[in-house]
Amino acid sequence: MSEKPIVVVGSGLAGLTCAWAATTPVVLVTAGTLTEGAASMWAQGGIAAAVSPDDSTASHAEDTWRAGAFAGDRPVIDRITGEAPEIVQVLADLDVPFDRASDGSLDLALEGGHSRPRVAHAGDHSGATITASMAAAVLAAADIELRENHTVTKLLTDDSGAVSGVVVRRADGTEETIDTDRVVLATGGLGGLWPHTTNPRTALGQGVALAARAGARTDDLHLVQFHPTGLDVPRDPMPLLTEALRGAGAVLLADGERFTDELQPRDVVAAAVWEQLTHGFAVRLDARGIPDVTTRFPAVAELAAASGLDLANDLLPVRPALHYSMGGVTVDGRSRTSVTGLWAIGEVSRTGLHGANRLASNSLLEAVVTGRAAARDSSAWRTGWDVRLSATDRATVLPRGDAEPIPVQEVRDLLGASCGVLRDGPTLQAAVDALQPHTGDDVAYVAWLIARSALAHPHSVGAHRRTDSVEMQGARV
């Protein structure tokens, strides 16, 4: 067995879980302080699991399959939803204070796309509560070395293409190389590349860039989810109005008229909101009919108040905002990538769970399941790499290096125009061409990979809606 440490990159819920569950020494590298900039800290809804007597993991799997536009990997869906009840118990054993009913059972919320209430939550700040509990467990562990304010700038590989180390940049700008043959990427998503986003601005797809430049396969980068109810105020990132509000009875209004079923999967609701906006209608979320809404959703009430809005009395302006990436670095059931010695977990990975649209509150579940899988596999791994993944498209493996400067905001504007709720071929081609000269820069490189992936998929599916696809022409969205 390797005597070198496992290097885990990222300290959101997935990375923390992996570090905590590993049985060999770990170096946990994070660009800020522990959990800083982690999107899992921002998750409001909770974690989906079939734990009530009238629910089943089969039903959870079916809802996940349907919400993902039947584009997910069914064995993966069955496996991850099947582990969900155990994962909730693992978290409860870590003293996560899930909300409880009067009889002591979990108080389960209903969210869009679910056929019944099955979201275990801790108020409306579940992600922060769960992630903080896992962070406490990591800090209490003996075999985890924490490297805060260290940014991984490069994955090193040997002559065979296997991982041989990572280059990290310290806060003072100096660099060092950590010698390792096992790296777990838990760097989060890429939503900060869009102009309207609920993601941390630092979520720029760094893990995708690291993996792709090292030769790892990526898939479905064009499949990104727009949350239907970003609070449309001049703040960046946009505040998120949780799905649970609509589960509790909030309705969407366009110039005062209700126009959609708010509990459909997110891609459907986001497209319906976008259609109203493109026709010039003002779209508002009306949560005034929810009893005790400010005490049930205190974090949302605080977000609204920060923008001068009253959750209990005002109609809240909303618009779709980039929320989650279903695609990423392609992995198998053990979280292995196509590069020997490299695992990817959480939102940076493409597991196949989400298909073309993520079901609400499946992200925290995926983070814990994949983090635990990578911990077990990387701890036990000795030699060999029996990964059955298709070969990487070598045209996408480009080196980091000198590139024509391009501001991040210009990249955001390009993706906003070309890879928004609705896309078309000519606009996507123009974005690919504009980004191509700048691919030596990681931000532009990831944006180029995204636009290139969207261009290569001419048919609409789930959150990927091409106005020039046969099935979209003449259809209302």
From TrEMBL:
Pfam families noted in UniProt: FAD_binding_2 (PF00890)
Cofactor(s) for this UniProt protein: FAD
Signal peptide: none
Annotated GO biological process: NAD+ biosynthetic process
Oxidoreductase listed as a keyword: yes
Pathway where it operates: Cofactor biosynthesis; NAD(+) biosynthesis; iminoaspartate from L-aspartate (oxidase route): step 1/1
Reaction equation(s) it catalyzes: L-aspartate + O2 = iminosuccinate + H2O2
PANTHER family: L-ASPARTATE OXIDASE (PTHR42716), L-ASPARTATE OXIDASE, CHLOROPLASTIC (PTHR42716:SF2)
Family (UniProt): Belongs to the FAD-dependent oxidoreductase 2 family. NadB subfamily.
Protein purpose: Catalyzes the oxidation of L-aspartate to iminoaspartate, the first step in the de novo biosynthesis of NAD(+).
Protein name: L-aspartate oxidase
Organism: Flexivirga oryzae
Phylogenetic classification of the source organism: Bacteria, Bacillati, Actinomycetota, Actinomycetes, Micrococcales
